[in-house]
């Protein structure tokens, strides 16, 4: 799936769902996500995590009508039980639109998803919404979290965590540090 009008500018980047990926073993590396030369946001990868960039390949007959943007993804270097990814889809201007976008991905992150809780919050002083739930992935119980962060202008960052049961707790400090490192850049890509 491709960004329709975008070109990704990255210092370092990330995915595990990604096919067509480049990998970097990180040690406190700042990843910057941008489109058409506008820097949208940055995050700092935890030490010894693998950063990748790429897109998920679509299969013939895929019913989804929405293009999927390039993803910044990461996972611990020696532990593929979890994956975290960030992306900013075109034409998703606010949190309600991001909620609709995520609902359209039903079954993509986990099968039989359920929401344990959701809350409105602020991340770096920006409106955000957070969901936490579970389901099954590749036949095993899995946890997921989704964070939606409003950027300046008319864009939203979607952050996703998917992992086997227990992985979230094991890597809680790394995940908390990653969220704390989030910084919106420039004007959020507004033109």
Task: Provide an overview of this structure.
- The chain is mainly beta and 191 residues long.
- 12% of the residues lie in helices and 47% in strands.
- It has helices at 95-104, 167-170, 172-180, and strands spanning 8-10, 19-25, 30-35, 38-44, 49-55, 71-76, 82-87, 111-123, 126-137, 140-150, 156-164, 183-184.
- Strand 3 and strand 4 form a beta hairpin.
- Residues 1-26 and 57-63 have low confidence and may be disordered.
Which helices and strands appear, and what pairs or packs with what?
Layout (H helix, E strand, L loop, with lengths): L7 E3 L8 E7 L4 E6 L2 E7 L4 E7 L15 E6 L5 E6 L7 H10 L6 E13 L2 E12 L2 E11 L5 E9 L2 H4 L1 H9 L2 E2 L7
Antiparallel strand pairs: 1-3, 2-5, 3-4, 4-12, 5-6, 6-7, 7-11, 8-9, 9-10, 10-11
Task: Please supply descriptive tags for the structure shown above.
12% helix; 191 residues; 3 helices; 4-stranded antiparallel sheet; 12 strands; single chain; 8-stranded antiparallel sheet; disordered N terminus; mainly beta
Strand content: over 45%
Alpha-beta classification? mainly beta
Total number of beta strands: 12
> Radius of gyration over alpha carbons?
15 Å
From N to C, what is the helix and strand string? EEEEEEEHEEEEHHE
- How far apart lie the N and C ends? 24 Å
Strand order of the largest sheet: 2-5-6-7-11-10-9-8
Mean pLDDT: 78
Largest beta-sheet characterization: 8 strands, antiparallel
Q: Share of helix among residues?
A: 10-25%
Low-confidence stretches: 1-26, 57-63
Overall geometry comes to: globular
Helical stretch tally? 3
């Amino acid at each position: 799936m491709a960004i329709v009008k975008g070109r990704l500018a990255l210092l370092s980047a990330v995915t595990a769902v990604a096919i067509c990926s480049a990998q970097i073993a990180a040690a406190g590396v700042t990843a910057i996500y941008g489109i058409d030369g506008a820097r949208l946001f940055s995050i700092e990868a935890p030490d010894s995590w693998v950063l990748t960039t790429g897109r998920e390949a679509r299969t013939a007959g895929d019913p989804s009508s929405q293009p999927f943007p390039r993803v910044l993804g990461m996972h611990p270097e020696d532990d593929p039980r979890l994956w975290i990814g960030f992306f900013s889809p075109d034409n998703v201007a606010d949190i309600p639109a991001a909620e609709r976008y995520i609902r359209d991905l039903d079954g993509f992150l986990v099968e039989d998803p359920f929401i344990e809780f959701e809350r409105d919050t602020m991340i770096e002083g920006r409106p955000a919404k957070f969901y936490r739930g579970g389901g099954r992935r590749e036949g095993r119980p899995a946890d997921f979290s989704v964070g939606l962060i409003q950027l300046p202008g008319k864009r939203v960052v979607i952050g996703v965590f998917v992992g086997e049961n227990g992985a979230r707790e094991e890597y809680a400090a790394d995940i908390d540090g990653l969220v704390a490192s989030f910084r919106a850049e420039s004007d959020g890509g507004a033109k």
